[in-house]
Design brief:
Oligomer: single chain
Number of strands: 10
Bound molecules: 5'-O-[(R)-(carboxyoxy)(hydroxy)phosphoryl]adenosine, zinc ion
Radius of gyration: 20 Å
Helix content: 40-55%
Strand content: 15-25%
Distance between the termini: 24 Å
Shape: globular
Strand order of the largest sheet: 3-2-1-4-5
Length: about 350
């Protein structure tokens, strides 16, 4: 992409339980490069509570942010004066943590005199496929994280058409709740996937909510309840039972993701949008079973599929730096009045600019 100038941005991410900072650059020729990507996970601090505690998260961000930002500059071998923009996730997320990252980014931007960019965390996930694979607009995005489960047509930077969303739980939330219910360690997604690998996906025939419906929405709470009812009925659970419950649950989730994404593809085309690619992003995109299910669907639909490398599925600073660069390139910078937003739907991005 020849319109890209050689630029580098710092990206700061503090919307949930990762304190992260990264520096990403784009060369004049168009090649993008992650120059550093520092992540401090707070998993240990929250594990005892079985989920993220907002107060603990905010405190931990305050304690870590300066160190993580300094490390991002050190490992990139750059000084603060050598970057072109400072980006921070301004939401959606836990507002106490978001304020920590946002305030640090504003301070660095003020001190260095560089432009400041308030990035939507979901846009960070959404644009990662362009950082790693230079995916062309428009594309169909399945965004699956702890707080979101959405199908979006990504038409451009800041230009999202939401095709479908969950009417109850997010898929990552469902993984986390199943893990908690079965006594598996937090965060639940990776634990459930690990157990599922040892289990029988056909032992329990769990429901596939909304399967076959034309509207590309999701529902996961009924599936979660079905798992709980079976777990209660066959308790006490052996290790095999836990593995089989996880495998059968994950198999149902894969079927749901594939079926709903197929409906999303149809809805996308009906809206007059021809996607270049099927993209999956967000923390749950790390799940190998979901990745292979979507791969099969993409093949069936004659589309390439792009999933971020595992290190870029979960929350990270590189995706924020990259979204910052995409915005900087279009002149979409913010001023110091940008606020932390606990709720910030992607399809409201245009109005917010
Ligand atoms: O994007 P992310 O890091 O944070 C949010 O913005 O929410 O996503 C975190 C979510 C958690 O619910 C976590 O359990 C889930 O992603 N997750 C997974 C896997 N790895 C992380 N879910 C299923 N399988 C995985 N391998
Ligand atoms: Zn996320």
């Amino acid at each position: 992409l020849s319109d890209r100038q050689a630029m580098r941005a710092l990206g700061i991410e503090t919307t949930c339980d990762e304190t992260a900072a990264a520096i990403v650059g784009v060369e004049r020729g168009g090649a993008s490069k992650i120059l550093s990507n520092e992540i401090l996970s707070q998993i240990a601090a929250h594990a005892a509570y079985g989920g993220v505690v907002p107060e603990i998260a905010a405190r931990a961000h305050v304690e870590a942010i300066d160190r993580i930002v300094a490390r991002a500059f050190e490992s990139a071998g750059l000084k603060a004066s050598e970057i072109d923009a400072v980006a921070a996730a301004a939401g959606p997320g836990l507002v106490g943590g978001v304020m920590v990252g946002l305030t640090s980014a504003k301070a660095i931007a003020l001190v260095t005199g560089k432009p400041f960019i308030a990035v939507n965390h979901l846009e960070g996930h959404a644009l990662t496929a362009r950082l790693t694979d230079d995916v062309a607009f428009p594309y169909l995005l399945l965004l699956v994280s702890g707080g979101h489960t959405q199908l979006l047509a990504v038409r451009g930077v800041g230009d999202y058409l939401r095709l479908g969303t969950t009417i109850d739980d997010a898929v990552g939330e469902a993984f986390d709740k199943i893990a908690k219910m079965l006594g598996l360690p937090y965060p639940g997604g990776p634990s459930v996937e690990r157990e599922a690998a040892k289990g029988d996906p056909e032992r329990f025939d769990f429901p596939r909510p909304l399967q076959g419906r034309p509207s590309p929405d999701f529902s996961l709470s009924g599936l979660k309840t079905a798992v709980r009812l079976v777990a209660e009925r066959i308790a006490p659970l052996s290790d095999n039972d836990v593995a089989d419950l996880c495998a059968s649950f994950q198999a149902a989730v894969v079927d749901v993701m594939v079926d709903r994404t197929r409906a999303g593809l149809r809805a996308c085309r009906e809206a007059g949008i021809t996607p270049s690619t099927l993209v999956v992003a967000g923390g749950v995109a790390a799940n190998q079973a979901i990745r292979s299910g979507l791969n099969r669907l993409a093949t069936e639909a004659g589309l390439p599929m792009v999933a971020p490398p595992l290190a870029l599925c979960g929350d990270n600073g590189a995706m924020i730096a990259w979204a910052g660069l995409e915005r900087l390139r279009l002149g979409l910078v913010d001023d110091m009045s940008a606020v932390a937003r606990p709720r910030w739907p992607l399809d409201e991005l245009k109005a917010a600019v």
